[in-house]
Amino acid sequence: MDAYKTHGAFSWSELSTTDPQAALAFYGALFGWTSADMDMGTGAYHVVKVGDTSVGGVMGMPPGAPAGMPPAWGVYVTVDDADTTVARCTELGGKVLAGPMDIPKVGRFAVLQDPQGAVFNVIAYVGE
């Protein structure tokens, strides 16, 4: 199974934190992760890797984050179409917290909340 092409598969994990460098040092020492930096237009984004495989990312708190928001890991679930999934989420009683919006050269994503309050991200990756 290719998690980046399979609807419903968990495909990415991402840490939003107040101190990305400290987080990278901690997780690097804990798990042996390495990282590669890329500019996402809102500041540095650190792609974390296990060997040569990219498995997630670490970034500073997102623009507009509420004051005092604690660092947190977020998950991405692959979908065939982000806009369709957003519409279906609201039909089922969920909420749209952000998006859908595009990440250039990556895909289209949205931040959603299920009816019980759990927050998750969905993403339709750009085809190769």
In short:
The protein is an alpha+beta fold and 128 residues long. It contains two helices and eight strands, in the order βαββββαβββ.
Describe what this molecule looks like in 3D.
- The chain is an alpha+beta fold.
- The protein has helices at residues 20-31, 82-91; strands at residues 10-17, 34-39, 44-50, 53-60, 72-78, 95-103, 107-113, 119-125.
- It has an eight-stranded mixed β-sheet with strand order 2-3-4-1-5-8-7-6, with helices on one face.
- A hairpin with a 2-residue loop joins strand 3 (44-50) and strand 4 (53-60).
- The longest helix is centred in the N-terminal third of the chain and has 12 residues, at 20-31.
- It is globular, with a radius of gyration of 15 Å.
- The model has no long low-confidence stretch (mean pLDDT 92).
Query: Average pLDDT across residues?
Result: 92
Question: How would you spell out the order of helices and strands?
Answer: EHEEEEHEEE
How many H/I helices?
Answer: 2
Helix content: 10-25%
Main β-sheet description: 8 strands, mixed
Structural class: alpha+beta
- What is the overall shape? globular
Strand order of the largest sheet: 2-3-4-1-5-8-7-6
Could you tell me the number of beta strands?
8
**Proportion of β residues?**
over 45%
Task: Produce the secondary structure layout.
Layout: E1 10-17, H1 20-31, E2 34-39, E3 44-50, E4 53-60, E5 72-78, H2 82-91, E6 95-103, E7 107-113, E8 119-125
Parallel strand pairs: 1-4, 5-8
Antiparallel strand pairs: 1-5, 2-3, 3-4, 6-7, 7-8
Key words describing this protein structure:
eight-stranded mixed beta sheet, globular, 128 residues, 17% helix, 2 helices, alpha+beta
